[in-house]
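Example (one chain per record):
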Amino acid sequence: MIVAVNVHLKKGVLDPQGKAVHHALETLGFKNVNDVRVGKQILINIDTDNKEEAIKEVEEMAKELLANPVIENYEIEVKE
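Predicted structure:
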């Protein structure tokens, strides 16, 4: 089973990479972009067919390692 952890900065936390991408998009002529926030997606292949078990295990991974709860939020999404 593939489980995705989508990590992004909390609202209010400065995102210099997002600002750089926003500036680059404006330079390329994309004038309708109001804001850009850059995050990351971590795909984890879990050896289980139990969806609830997979989510619970990945939740623990996210809390302990994959996301910094002080400045980041995360969402867990089952792909398969």
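Caption: The helical segments are 16-27, 51-66.
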